[in-house]
């Protein structure tokens, strides 16, 4: 369990560097990330490099015993480059081109920009790739952030044409697959296809989906080109990218395929994330200072899956941030809690954003581990405490490098499902990721450890597999179900589309009918005033956002019906299908039953308490607003805290 920090030597006088480095080491920090926005300082003019300052910064940090993560600086292209290629600025869906003067303004498809990005990457990698202190490389920074992907530029269109040609080979095949006979959209050649923006009403959903698939591949190939350079010059270093929370613009599983990353890193801003995601206002209010208890855990578990077991938190919130609608100070204890929470979920490194609050420019209202004058911030003091606690505990400092794997429960997450249901919401409030989050929250409320995985993962070792929804059910997934001994729960809209974004010939849930004989006849999205009621295992509740009308074969069980007679939950053997987005209480009743049938142990946890086990240590966290008991055995040997913990506190005990 290591601590890190994001540091910007270029923003501070050199006279501070050595002392900063010394104090990092004294605080228990082992890793420091630098340079990801320093392009114009490294290459002030085209082809003219100034390495002196970066050499000195690297040497200063290395001399203090710190390990360095170097960022390739492509997220902030200098003005000389945008002046040379005015068309390298990305284009928004409304056709407006971004300006320079901030960051991430580049067009990810632009050949001239890519070439310049590879050139600076190669120059850096040649210089520092074999430096003993440089242990990892981060490509760019938060790819696709600030809505800069997709880009609707001329280059994107050209590359989209090529991508379509590779996928469909002939224009006839594309016309057929896209159903372009509709609304007279038939294309005579690939060149006749436009980008799917600025249409008066809906563009063809498969056109939109293929564009999103293409853009997702663009993000992955942009990263991959840099990785190929880095691996050549820095063969021993870890390569990573810092992903974001609740972010689905590109398919992270595809991005990480073929060893494109060694470890998945992500940037965790729990309070701001709680403020921005689609949970009820009442929950945002309740968790304004602690963050929603599952908001970080969801991405810890997701990125552990993306990294095939290895993940880091590259940027961890250290105090109030500057970019949400409201930016409160975290409750006392949360900076320490979030660190232990990440470690409990398997993080190898928790690295803070940032070392010192910067008194000038865009992020002057963003806190760090120090105030602008250099004194330790409240968050900095909490990090100090956590680092001391780990150093003092033989149990904590010898935990296994990875989280216990596999967990008993898998939750399948699918990026294409998010895209398809964004393209075709059908009801204003339908958001697949939030449906997945609701199921995840229920599992975490039951004290269950969860692996979040793609549908292509080997699911054979799980006892319970929860698929909140998956638009396209493949034959391979059906084969996994047939061979599995697990309990399976499928949410609404599963199997509702083909890979070509059409309704399956045998109706939804398509190939899933092989293991669960039923058909979806009609679907409805629900305005908040429409509340079909149902009950399951003594819990009464309603469908929200979405409901389906099913016809089921005689052999299929009906586990719950709506008041008007339509099936709500149906099942066949180990597979259940939920014909609606049920309210939280019903999801809880359903997953409790599924966990029971699967032989997965659940806890009755006090409100706001969460558990996570790593190695033989069980951690408990209190996100609630009152002190609460943790479910430790009476004779538990505590490593942190005790049987009762206050808001923002952590307990940990030996669990064997
Ligand atoms: C991240 C970004 C950082 C910094 C931070 C502020 O999204 O990677 O550079 O801007 O947000 O919270």
Q: Please identify which CATH superfamily of the largest domain we are dealing with.
A: Glycosidases
The bound ligands are: beta-D-galactopyranose
- Which architecture of the largest domain per CATH? Alpha-Beta Barrel
How large, in whole angstroms, is the Cα Rg?
25 Å
Strand order of the largest sheet: 5-4-3-2-1-9-8-7-6
Give the DSSP E fraction (strand runs of 2 or more residues).
15-25%
Number of H- or I-type helical stretches: 19
Describe this structure in words.
The protein contains 19 helices and 26 strands. It is an alpha/beta fold. It folds into 3 domains: 2-161 and 200-397, TIM Barrel (Alpha-Beta Barrel); 409-598, Class I glutamine amidotransferase (GATase) domain (Rossmann fold, 3-Layer(aba) Sandwich); 612-655, Immunoglobulin-like (Sandwich), CATH 2.60.40.1180. The strands form 5 sheets. The chain has a 9-stranded parallel sheet. It has a 7-stranded mixed sheet with strand order 11-10-12-13-19-18-17. Strands 14, 15, 16 and 20 form a 4-stranded antiparallel sheet that branches. Helix 1 (14-27) runs parallel beside helix 3. The longest helix is centred in the middle third of the chain and has 29 residues, at 205-233. It is globular. The protein binds beta-D-galactopyranose (GAL). The site of beta-D-galactopyranose has 10 residues, from loops.
């Amino acid at each position: 369990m290591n601590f890190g920090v994001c540091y910007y030597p270029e923003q501070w006088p050199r006279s501070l560097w050595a002392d900063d480095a010394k104090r990092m080491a004294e605080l228990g920090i082992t890793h420091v990330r630098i340079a990801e926005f320093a392009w114009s300082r490294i290459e002030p003019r085209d082809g003219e490099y100034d390495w002196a300052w970066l050499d000195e910064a690297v040497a200063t940090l290395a001399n203090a015993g710190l390990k360095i993560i170097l960022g390739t600086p492509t997220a902030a292209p200098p003005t000389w480059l945008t002046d040379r290629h005015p068309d390298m600025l990305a284009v928004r869906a409304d056709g407006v081109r971004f300006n320079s003067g901030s960051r991430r303004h580049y067009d990810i498809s632009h050949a001239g920009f890519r070439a310049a990005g590879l050139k600076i990457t190669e120059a850096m990698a040649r210089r520092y790739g074999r430096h003993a202190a440089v242990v990892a490389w981060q490509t760019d920074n938060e790819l696709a952030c600030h809505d800069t992907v997709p880009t609707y530029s001329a280059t994107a269109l050209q590359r989209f044409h090529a991508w379509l040609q590779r996928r469909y080979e002939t224009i006839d095949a594309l016309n057929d697959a896209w159903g372009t006979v509709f609304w007279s959209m038939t294309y005579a050649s690939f060149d006749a296809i436009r980008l799917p923006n600025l249409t008066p009403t809906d563009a063809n959903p498969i056109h939109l989906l293929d564009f999103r698939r293409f853009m997702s591949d663009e993000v992955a190939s942009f990263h991959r080109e840099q990785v190929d350079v880095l691996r050549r010059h820095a063969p021993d270093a870890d390569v990573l990218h810092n992903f974001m929370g609740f972010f689905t613009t590109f398919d992270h599983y595809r991005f990480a395929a073929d060893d494109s990353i060694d470890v998945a890193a992500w940037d965790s801003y729990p309070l701001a994330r709680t403020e921005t995601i689609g949970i009820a206002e009442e929950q945002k209010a309740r968790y304004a200072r602690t963050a929603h208890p599952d908001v970080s855990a969801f991405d810890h578990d997701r990125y552990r899956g993306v990294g095939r077991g290895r993940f880091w938190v590259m940027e961890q919130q250290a105090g109030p941030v500057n970019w949400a609608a409201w930016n409160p100070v975290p409750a006392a204890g949360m900076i320490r809690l979030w660190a232990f929470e990440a470690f409990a979920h398997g993080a190898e490194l928790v690295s803070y954003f940032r070392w010192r609050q910067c008194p000038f420019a865009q992020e002057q209202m963003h806190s760090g581990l120090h105030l602008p004058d250099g004194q330790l911030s409240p968050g900095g003091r909490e990090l100090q405490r956590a680092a001391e606690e780990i150093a003092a505990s033989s149990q904590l400092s010898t935990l296994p490098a990875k989280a216990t794997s596999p967990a008993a429960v898998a939750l399948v997450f699918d990026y294409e499902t998010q895209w398809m249901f964004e393209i075709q919401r059908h009801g204003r409030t339908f958001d697949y990721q939030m449906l997945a989050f609701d199921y995840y929250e229920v599992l975490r409320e039951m004290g269950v450890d969860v692996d979040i995985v793609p549908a292509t993962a080997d699911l054979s070792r799980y006892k319970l597999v929860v698929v909140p929804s998956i638009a396209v059910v493949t034959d391979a997934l059906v084969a996994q179900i047939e061979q599995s001994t697990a309990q399976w729960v499928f949410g609404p809209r599963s199997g509702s589309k083909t890979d070509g974004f059409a309704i399956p010939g045998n109706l939804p849930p398509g190939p899933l009918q092989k293991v669960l004989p039923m058909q979806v006849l009609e679907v409805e999205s629900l305005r908040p005033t429409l509340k079909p009621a149902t009950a399951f295992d003594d819990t009464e509740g309603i469908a929200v956002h979405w409901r389906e009308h099913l016809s089921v074969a005689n052999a299929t069980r009906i586990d719950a019906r709506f008041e008007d007679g339509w099936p709500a939950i149906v099942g066949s053997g180990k597979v259940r299908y939920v014909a609606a987005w049920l309210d939280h209480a019903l999801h809880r009743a359903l997953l409790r039953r599924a966990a029971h049938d699967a032989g997965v142990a659940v806890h009755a946890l006090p409100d706001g308490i969460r558990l996570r086990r790593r190695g033989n240590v069980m951690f408990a966290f209190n996100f609630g607003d009152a002190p609460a008991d943790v479910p430790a055995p009476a004779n538990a040997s505590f490593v942190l805290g005790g049987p009762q913990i206050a808001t923002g506190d952590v307990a940990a005990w030996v669990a064997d």
